[in-house]
Amino acid sequence: MKRSYRGVILLCVVLFLNIIFTQKAIHQYYFENYTATVIYAVLNLVLFPIALFIYHKEKNV
Amino acid sequence: MDKNNKIPFDEDNYTHNINKSNERKLDRRGFMKTMVGAAGLFAVSTLPWGSIAATELMGLREKKYPKKEIIDVKKLNIGDAFEFAYPTDHDSALLVRLGENEYKAYQNACTHLRCPVFWEQSKSELVCPCHHGFFDVKTGSPTAGPPRRPLPEITIQVEAGKIVATGVKRYET
């Protein structure tokens, strides 16, 4: 049976963004740009439901 | 005598401790599950940074720093450095006397991985020995090595023959 690997790729992209946002949040925290830190932390939080959504959509494809 | 010098039985693949079939197999769905879990982990791990940043935004922006005497002017020769703690006892800091009336002080945790930074008098630079990070003593900005951010500068006053720390500057970015 031929599998669709779209979900795998999309989740890899999500994880890549996660790494970037985490790195950015911590760096901006040390630069004392607190607004940017909050924005990146929220972006990181938002990525989790997106990942769940992708998983539910793609698990049987 | 032979007992402890032998492998218990012939083995060449070290898989005897795998009990279930397909125990080592990671399929597509399992991989996706791992990725979702990792996304959750990342989300949780940025929460403390976000919440600390949020509390900083809610009114603690202008921090009050206590005045603290560091050392007598007479006890510190030109070109010498003195280590002290400021603003709290757990924040190590470094004071350098550059001239007759020229002082510079920085929190001396390297901005790479927080190793202590030392004053190299012969070369007139601040050195982090862990990964050879170098900082400009006049501005605190990194000149070489892994650190990317400047050292936080401590404002200094001279009062009645004593050097007094009055605050920590925000990063000027």
Give me some keywords for this one.
heterodimer; A: 61 residues; mainly alpha; 2 helices; 0% strand; elongated; B: alpha+beta; six-stranded antiparallel beta sheet; 1 helix
**In what range is the share of β-strand residues of chain A?**
under 5%
> Which parts of chain B are unreliable, with pLDDT below 50 for 5 consecutive residues or more?
none
End-to-end CA span of chain A: 11 Å
Largest sheet of chain A: none
Helix content of chain A: over 70%
Strand order of the largest sheet of chain B: 1-10-9-4-3-2
Report helical residue fraction of chain B.
10-25%
The string of secondary-structure elements of chain B, in order, is HEEEEEEEEEE
The residue ranges of chain A in which pLDDT falls below 50 over 5 or more consecutive positions are none
How many helices of chain B does DSSP assign?
1
Instruction: Considering residues with a beta carbon less than 8 A from a beta carbon on another chain, report the largest interface and each chain's count.
Output: A-B, 37 and 28 residues
Arithmetic mean pLDDT of chain B: 86
Largest sheet descriptor of chain B: 6 strands, antiparallel
Number of helices in the DSSP assignment of chain A? 2
